[in-house]
Design brief:
Blueprint: H1 7-29, H2 35-58, H3 66-91, H4 103-119, H5 127-155, H6 159-173, H7 178-196, H8 203-224, H9 229-232, H10 234-249
Amino acid sequence: MRFYRHRWFKAWIALIALSFSLIAMMQVAGNQAVLPAAFFYGASAGPIALLLAVHDRIHIATSVPAMTLAGMFLFGGGVALLLGGYFDALLISEKNSNSILRVGWIEEPAKLVPPLAVALTGRHLTKAAGVALGLACATGFAIMESMAYAWKSIANHDGALGAGTVLLLRGLSTPFSHLVWTGLVCAVAFGVWQVRGRAVLTLPIVVAFVTAAMLHSLSDGLLILDIPRPARLLFIVVAVTSYWLFHRATRNLKPVPIPQPEPARA
């Protein structure tokens, strides 16, 4: 229960505080140039907290070169957003609310394209590397999508505080949605590919993808469809289930020992 001692919690609090401090400064001084930074820090809080928690548990960041992870975060997340955004606009209609149930079948494949591109080169074909790549890509996607929702809130005249509230709520939900859905599929896929030595399609990978896509669509549907308010609480069940499946898929990953420098000789 002493979660407040963990650095993931400290990072989450620090990023949220910085985001709202920038928003408060903008409200007082009227300097709207800081809004992009406020939105970025607010959108980053939840995903960064989950990345720290997962890394502290299994040290996945040491399985892939730092520059590769940075590229997956920046470029991979952008490619996923490009693909997901295009097909979202093509296949999801505001006039047909039920079309939101397609979103998981659109965005989950989009987030898997960049890690798959790396896997097809034959590099980083380990389960730990796959989880790291998947989480990095999903983090870039989730942060940029959350910022888009914040700007949409501004466009709807909700004000900066309304946008900050959107970021706070998404910061609480995205670690148990976008990140764990992509992480789940990558854990299963790269686990298979580590054994096979190459990227192949198998039944466990298909099952993991279908599960992630269904959870994604169900999560969005519970928030958007016209259903009784008590039923919306099932969103929490979906979030907990999503994280539990991801945790179960990665439970056999062991922390990689970090070599310690030898003490200087006298």
